[in-house]
């Protein structure tokens, strides 16, 4: 459904406008290494996995959060809980676009006094994360909130930065970044495409 | 642009499922410490009630408030309507106050439609029950409750029992459940069936005993004493015996089947206390679900630049 579009900072990261979504900038092995590194960084930064809660932002952030939790479990022997946080109802651009359905919010237990690690696939304007911070405020009072993203493509519109980044990918606004994950798309790859070529032939199934 | 919800028939299967899925997510809000979302902050929703209805009005009010909308309750009693103000003038007043949505309950069938298509107001119109015509959000909350209890609609048999003639709930339910793929059977005394019921997408029966045994859902309707201005049935006792849901009929229902009632109930008339209070009765649950479903409707109608559901009428404004 259309809910998946809010997983990253749309619209510029939407790949749907081109039938050829672009060239791979991260292959499956790169994604794997990036997630392993982020998992280690999270453990190091928080001196272990105690009190951690990973919250993925639907759609692909949720799968990334689950993978990170599993990796942290392999490293530490303790798998932190992973959930999902849909921020649609908190977005500041809701009125600018057609109404859309909601993603899943599934908070594993109480987040009060825990360290919440937000996980998303692409970081761009920062508006999604800003909405996520508002949403977290309604759920409890975590000790700290950290942000992990697979790709940071720049173009921030708010003073927000990620604590853990898989790959910094400087892009132009005319480019698109599409993250494909095995759970949903059959393979792990990050594609860098261009918006202009075929705006009319947008495929409905394409989503970021 | 779509932006009204006037009839259950306005909804396609996908739209109806979108509302139910959205309501499902919103229902989870009840477990949170802060049961409020900022989504409709700054929007104004007017509950325009020309008929008494604490249940529906409160449900819409709770739904709008949980989405942070400002709510104005306007009931005809004790207002300028009792001084003779017309629907048009009331609508123009609401428009002048900058209303984004009007939730309207009216004793005249078609009043919400008039409000939506006349150009008097620019906002969304939600039908909260008009005469004997429709009550789409009630049908949605019933469908939501059924899906939660039974899983899906395909091939499910729903029996609606009682005063079909005066029931907007029955009419909306028949339409919506048909859209969703369930089989509906109406059971009522012949005098309480509307003319033209043969054209509805449902079956009709006069024998409740034959139907309960094969129903997944038995929905009892209230005997509306206030509308019983003619002799529709010989006596309350006879009605109760032929069309009431008592312990015996309840026992004949399949194990998994549920009992629904839109409320308020006449205990001892259409439903016995024993059945109404059984764990397989969803009557209280329906009220809770009503808030989630109405939140979903308000959210999908109002939050975006374009509504995700509803009819396309009323664009003359």
Automatic annotation (TrEMBL), chain B:
<dbReference type="Pfam" id="PF00185">
    <property type="entry name" value="OTCace"/>
</dbReference>
<feature type="binding site">
    <location>
        <position position="138"/>
    </location>
    <ligand>
        <name>carbamoyl phosphate</name>
    </ligand>
</feature>
<feature type="domain" description="Aspartate/ornithine carbamoyltransferase Asp/Orn-binding">
    <location>
        <begin position="155"/>
        <end position="301"/>
    </location>
</feature>
<feature type="binding site">
    <location>
        <position position="263"/>
    </location>
    <ligand>
        <name>carbamoyl phosphate</name>
    </ligand>
</feature>
<comment type="similarity">
    <text>Belongs to the aspartate/ornithine carbamoyltransferase superfamily. ATCase family.</text>
</comment>
<comment type="function">
    <text>Catalyzes the condensation of carbamoyl phosphate and aspartate to form carbamoyl aspartate and inorganic phosphate, the committed step in the de novo pyrimidine nucleotide biosynthesis pathway.</text>
</comment>
<dbReference type="InterPro" id="IPR006130">
    <property type="entry name" value="Asp/Orn_carbamoylTrfase"/>
</dbReference>
<dbReference type="InterPro" id="IPR006132">
    <property type="entry name" value="Asp/Orn_carbamoyltranf_P-bd"/>
</dbReference>
<dbReference type="InterPro" id="IPR006131">
    <property type="entry name" value="Asp_carbamoyltransf_Asp/Orn-bd"/>
</dbReference>
<dbReference type="Pfam" id="PF02729">
    <property type="entry name" value="OTCace_N"/>
</dbReference>
<comment type="subunit">
    <text>Heterododecamer (2C3:3R2) of six catalytic PyrB chains organized as two trimers (C3), and six regulatory PyrI chains organized as three dimers (R2).</text>
</comment>
<feature type="binding site">
    <location>
        <position position="83"/>
    </location>
    <ligand>
        <name>L-aspartate</name>
    </ligand>
</feature>
<feature type="binding site">
    <location>
        <position position="168"/>
    </location>
    <ligand>
        <name>L-aspartate</name>
    </ligand>
</feature>
<feature type="binding site">
    <location>
        <position position="222"/>
    </location>
    <ligand>
        <name>L-aspartate</name>
    </ligand>
</feature>
<feature type="binding site">
    <location>
        <position position="264"/>
    </location>
    <ligand>
        <name>carbamoyl phosphate</name>
    </ligand>
</feature>
<feature type="domain" description="Aspartate/ornithine carbamoyltransferase carbamoyl-P binding">
    <location>
        <begin position="3"/>
        <end position="147"/>
    </location>
</feature>
<keyword id="KW-0665">Pyrimidine biosynthesis</keyword>
<dbReference type="InterPro" id="IPR002082">
    <property type="entry name" value="Asp_carbamoyltransf"/>
</dbReference>
<protein>
    <recommendedName>
        <fullName>Aspartate carbamoyltransferase</fullName>
        <ecNumber>2.1.3.2</ecNumber>
    </recommendedName>
</protein>
<feature type="binding site">
    <location>
        <position position="56"/>
    </location>
    <ligand>
        <name>carbamoyl phosphate</name>
    </ligand>
</feature>
<keyword id="KW-0808">Transferase</keyword>
<feature type="binding site">
    <location>
        <position position="105"/>
    </location>
    <ligand>
        <name>carbamoyl phosphate</name>
    </ligand>
</feature>
<feature type="binding site">
    <location>
        <position position="55"/>
    </location>
    <ligand>
        <name>carbamoyl phosphate</name>
    </ligand>
</feature>
<comment type="pathway">
    <text>Pyrimidine metabolism; UMP biosynthesis via de novo pathway; (S)-dihydroorotate from bicarbonate: step 2/3.</text>
</comment>
<dbReference type="InterPro" id="IPR036901">
    <property type="entry name" value="Asp/Orn_carbamoylTrfase_sf"/>
</dbReference>
<feature type="binding site">
    <location>
        <position position="135"/>
    </location>
    <ligand>
        <name>carbamoyl phosphate</name>
    </ligand>
</feature>
């Amino acid at each position: 459904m259309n809910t998946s579009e809010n997983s990253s900072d749309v619209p510029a990261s939407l790949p749907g406008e081109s039938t050829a979504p672009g060239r791979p900038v991260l292959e499956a092995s790169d994604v794997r290494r990036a997630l392993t590194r982020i998992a280690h960084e999270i453990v190091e930064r928080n001196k272990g996995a105690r009190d951690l809660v990973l919250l993925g932002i639907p759609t692909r952030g949720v799968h990334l959060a689950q993978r990170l939790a599993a990796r942290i479990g392999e490293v530490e022997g303790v798998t932190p809980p992973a959930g999902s946080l849909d921020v649609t109802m908190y977005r500041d651009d809701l009125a600018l676009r057609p109404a859309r359905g909601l993603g899943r919010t599934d908070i594993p237990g109480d987040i009060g006094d825990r360290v919440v690690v937000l996980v998303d696939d692409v970081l761009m304007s920062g508006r999604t994360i800003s909405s996520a911070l508002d949403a977290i405020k309604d759920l409890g009072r975590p000790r700290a909130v950290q942000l992990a993203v697979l790709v940071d493509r720049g173009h921030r519109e708010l003073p927000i930065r990620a604590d853990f980044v898989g790959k910094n990918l400087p892009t132009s606004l005319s480019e698109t970044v599409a993250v494909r994950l095995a759970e949903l798309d059959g393979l792990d790859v990050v594609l860098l495409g261009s918006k202009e070529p075929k705006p009319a032939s947008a495929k409905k199934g394409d989503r970021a | 642009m779509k932006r009204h919800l006037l009839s259950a028939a306005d909804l396609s299967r996908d739209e109806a499922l979108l509302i139910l899925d959205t309501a499902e997510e919103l229902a989870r809000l009840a477990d949170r410490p802060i049961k409020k979302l900022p989504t409709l902050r700054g929007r104004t929703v007017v509950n325009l009630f020309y008929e008494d209805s604490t249940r529906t009005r409160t449900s819409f009010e709770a739904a709008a408030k949980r989405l942070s909308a400002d709510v104005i309750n306007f009931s005809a009693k004790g207002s300028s309507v009792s001084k003779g103000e017309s629907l048009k003038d009331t609508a123009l007043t609401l428009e002048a106050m900058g209303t984004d949505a009007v939730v309207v309950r009216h004793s005249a069938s078609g009043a919400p439609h008039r409000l939506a298509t006349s150009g008097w107001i620019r906002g969304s119109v939600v039908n909260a029950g008009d005469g004997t015509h429709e009550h789409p959000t009630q049908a949605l909350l019933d469908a939501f409750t059924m899906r939660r209890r039974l899983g899906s609609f395909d091939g499910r048999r729903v029996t609606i029992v009682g005063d079909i003639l005066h029931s907007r709930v029955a009419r909306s339910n028949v339409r919506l459940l048909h859209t969703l793929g369930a089989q509906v059977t109406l059971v009522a005394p012949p005098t309480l069936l509307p003319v033209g019921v043969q054209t509805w997408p449902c079956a009709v029966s006069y024998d409740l005993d034959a139907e309960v045994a094969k129903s997944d859902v038995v929905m009892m309707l209230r005997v509306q004493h206030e509308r019983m201005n003619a002799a529709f049935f010989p006596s309350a006792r006879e009605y109760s015996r032929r069309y009431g849901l008592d312990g015996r009929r309840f026992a004949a229902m399949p194990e998994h089947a549920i009992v629904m009632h839109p409320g308020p109930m006449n205990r001892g008339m259409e439903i016995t206390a024993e059945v109404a209070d059984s764990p397989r009765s969803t009557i209280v649950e329906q009220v809770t679900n009503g808030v989630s479903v109405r939140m979903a409707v308000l959210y999908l109608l109002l939050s975006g630049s374009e509504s995700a559901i509803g009819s396309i009428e009323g664009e003359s404004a």
